[in-house]
Write a structure and sequence with these properties.
Layout (H helix, E strand, L loop, with lengths): L15 E4 L6 E2 L13 E3 L3 E6 L5 E7 L4 E2 L7 E4 L3 E6 L6 E6 L3 E6 L14 E4 L5 E6 L6 E6 L4 E5 L6 E2 L4 E3 L6 E6 L6 E5 L4 E5 L4 E5 L5 E8 L5 E8 L4 E7 L8 E6 L5 E6 L4 E6 L5 E6 L6 E7 L7 E4 L11 E9 L4 E8 L15 E2 L7 H5 L8 E2 L8 E2 L1 H7 L15 H21 L2 E5 L7 E6 L2 E6 L6 H45 L1
Parallel strand pairs: 2-6, 11-15
Antiparallel strand pairs: 1-31, 2-31, 3-4, 4-5, 5-7, 8-9, 9-10, 10-11, 12-13, 13-14, 14-16, 17-18, 18-19, 19-20, 21-22, 22-23, 23-24, 25-26, 26-27, 27-28, 29-30, 30-31, 32-33, 33-34, 35-36, 36-37
Helix pairs in contact: 3-4
Length: 529
């Protein structure tokens, strides 16, 4: 019997890294020379922020995501801290709100103008004062609005809520004191009910963030953890650190049992810190080392051997830090599944790096873009503090899709005020024009295809149901949905109708482009004659 190698089928086997061209990079950025082991960069679909080097206090730079090329050395900064800035994080529910922490022992929340930073910003929207020593890490809650956690060199993890009238907040909601040394990283699980931390004492801890109760703690001598990460809904933790022989190592843990790692693998003998990044939609894990030029990536499965090596991206440019674009900011037309922003200190350069799944078709690839976490909070701060847990509100990445919903939450609870963002901001002019044209096209398609949408009657004494067909109202005696199952079925039918209309709209756009190309070819042929 001949031996045959065991190949594992995966749609992400051939994922490759595509660095941006020189004109699409951010050049001339004075990246900080701080030795703090943080990402030093944060991105969202509108802006990219990076901690910069400056004299007399701390500052960071906020650039429009499309402001590529050479950066003005006198570009305005956000510079309200009295000490070096150590960490920055964008609010996941507000693209114009960013938090920063500093050696001056404060956390500050900043409002970024809609058109970018046009002059130096020195006055924050909120200032959080509660740490006695410098603050090294901050982390937003993944599903609750206006909740942020911070930790510093006083070994405390503080929980803050921002929906209070005071501009300077001195009393945190909760102080968690279970660490014996400096906290090196923090990570929430999907619904924010558990907080994992890694500490300078090389231990991993799982904490209830509401009460501050210590739930699990490692006591393993074989792995000294420096960074820790929850792996989505897999109920597993991943940590990076060093083995007892001082080799860089990754380890996988069961979140309910931290006595021994479920999996451990030595990578190399370098000394730089390993930054883990996990994509819960594709189950891909990326490992980037500080000072390295390469990025390894793996696929995670819930069964043994859990971690499946795919390949690695190699570059001659070492990274000092890494920013990550949220999934809603990716280019789905080019099958981009992840995007890094590499901080290259030796060239004062920020280099976008896209991870792409090679596909021949240019249409939307639904199998690699499942529903993903959106930019709406699932609940308010009061709801979460009172003990409620909710998963993130999901959204589709299909072009033209505007729907943000969590089916179970929307059908059982109905709309809540938590889906409102902190600010009601107007759309930019260009974006508004694009949406208006898209709506007009969609309306034309709707008239041509004559769909029928169901609208329950608002009259309590009437059992009639109103139908909308080609703009005409038609009332028929039909009972409205009375049970949750009937309402859910109606919801799914309407979603299917909307999805069909959008596909028809995309087909018409493709046909328009083909006709424009044919007209152009005819004109060129006539010109040659």
């Amino acid at each position: 019997m001949t031996w045959r190698p065991q190949y594992r089928s995966s749609k992400y086997r051939h994922v490759f890294g595509k660095p941006a061209t020189k004109e699409n990079c951010y050049d001339g950025v004075p990246i900080t020379r701080s030795v703090h082991d943080n990402h030093l960069c944060a991105a969202n679909p509108r802006f990219i922020a990076v901690i910069t080097e400056c004299a007399g206090g701390g500052s960071f730079l906020v650039l429009s995501i499309h402001h590529t090329g050479k950066v003005d050395p006198h570009h305005p900064k956000v510079s309200g801290h009295r000490g070096n800035v150590l960490d920055i994080k964008w609010n996941p529910f507000d693209d114009f709100c960013i938090a920063s922490c500093s050696e001056d022992a404060t956390v500050k929340i900043w409002d970024i103008p809609e058109h970018g930073v046009l002059k130096n910003i020195t006055v924050p929207w909120k200032e959080l004062q509660g740490h006695s020593r410098r603050v090294g890490l901050i982390e937003w809650h993944p599903t609750a609005n206006n909740i942020i956690f911070s930790t510093g060199y006083d070994y405390q993890v503080l929980m803050w809520r921002l929906d209070v009238p005071e501009q300077v907040i001195k009393n945190p909601v909760r102080s968690i004191s279970v660490h014996s040394d400096v906290v090196l990283s923090m990570s929430f699980n999907t619904d924010g009910s558990r907080l994992a931390t890694s500490c300078k004492d090389k231990k991993i801890r799982v904490i209830d963030p509401r009460t501050g109760t210590l739930l699990q703690e490692t006591n393993c001598k074989l792995h000294r953890a420096s960074k820790v990460l929850f792996l989505g809904n897999l109920k597993m933790l991943l940590s990076t650190g060093n083995s007892r022989w001082n080799h860089r190592q990754i380890a996988l843990w069961d979140q309910e049992d931290l006595s021994q790692p479920s999996y451990a693998e030595d990578l190399d003998g370098s000394s730089g810190v390993l930054f883990p990044f996990y994509d819960s939609d594709t189950h891909m894990l990326y490992i980037a080392g500080k000072g390295d030029g390469n990025i390894r990536y793996y696929e995670i499965s819930p069964e043994k051997p859990y971690v499946h090596y795919l390949t690695e991206y190699r570059s001659l440019l070492p990274q000092k830090g890494m920013g990550v674009m949220p999934k809603r900011g990716l280019d789905v037309c080019s099958c981009e599944v992840f995007r890094f922003y590499k901080l290259v200190t030796i060239k004062s350069l920020i280099e976008p790096l896209s991870m792409i799944v090679p596909r021949r078709s240019e249409s939307y690839q639904e199998d690699i873009y499942p529903m993903t976490a959106g930019n709406k909070p699932a609940m308010t701060a009061d709801e979460w503090i009172s003990g409620l847990d909710k998963g993130p509100l999901m959204m589709s990445l299909r072009p033209g899709s505007k729907l943000d919903f969590n089916v179970e939450a929307d059908l059982s609870k109905g709309p809540t005020d938590s889906t409102e963002t902190r600010h009601s901001r107007s759309r930019p002019g260009l974006s508004q024009l694009i949406h208006e044209r898209l709506d007009a096209k969609e309306e034309n398609v709707r008239k041509e295809s004559r769909p029928t949408l169901l609208l329950p009657s608002t009259d309590e004494n009437s059992s009639s149901t109103t139908y909308v067909s080609n703009g005409q109202l038609d009332s028929t005696h039909c009972s409205p949905p009375k049970t949750e199952n009937e309402l859910r079925q109606m919801f799914y039918k309407q979603q299917e109708e909307i999805r069909r209309l959008r596909e028809l709209l995309n087909q018409k756009d493709v046909r328009m482009k083909q006709l424009e190309l044919e007209i152009k070819n005819v004109k060129n042929s006539q010109a040659t004659l």
